[in-house]
# Entry
Amino acid sequence: MSDQSQMTKGVLTYLALLLALSATPAPAAQSTSLSVQINVTAQTTVQTATPPTSITQANMLYQLTSDNPAVSVTVGARNVTIDCQGHALANVFVNADNFTLQNCTTSIVQISGANYSTIRNNTIGMMYYWGGYLGYPASTGHQAYGNTFPTLAGDDVVTLNDVSNTSITDNVFTGGASDAFIEGVGTWNGVTISGNTFTSASGCACIAVGMWYDDARGSSIVINATQITNNTIHVAAVAQCYNFSPYGVTGCPTDAQASAAVGWAYPAAGHLTFSGDEIVP
# Structure
């Protein structure tokens, strides 16, 4: 999907996002996340009411001093941090390595083929890590933790397309989706989905964690060294806890049942493991 289409979608979802904020609990404290190459060079700090809509200067830290609900930012330079300090942006599009977003309220975060991102302590409508499916290179070294996702997304809330060494940890999903809270596309190498809470007051016909597949794409799904661990999934909020159908895992099985299904159904047994998840009625 193009940046322009994503911006349009972000405008439509922004009001719903703001309405959900007052009733949204603060995220749980983050657990240990990946050690990745973030902010390897000192940054120049700029306090600003309105950030640049196109960031082309590397090694910058932007601290916002006011809300910008109609402003979308495209990041095209390395080692940039946006600290909203509790303020709002419309959307954030990232095309460069070593990016950090923190303390923001925003509709869409889109990372397109860039590496080593940290997304922490934000309230976000939808988040996309784009790879080969949309023609971007595979990426590595992402971490997203301590975020809240309170809106009902039109498709998926978080999409991970062709990523490695990536962790999605200690986030709270309180809204819903027409498809999945967290959906994988293509290849996952060294992905950790841990400590997240999946709940929805209204429930949704969606999946907590799964991979996108159909008859044409099922054989292209590749999962290596991936852990689904210590999440809390409220059954009333989802239609399925997991859907890794080519690996034999669907529905809301126990960890032991899910791990056994992977070992029986797919030659990559042990490359997708389940442990410590709590399935709540």
About this structure: Residues 1-36 have pLDDT under 50 and may be disordered. The chain has two helices and 27 strands.
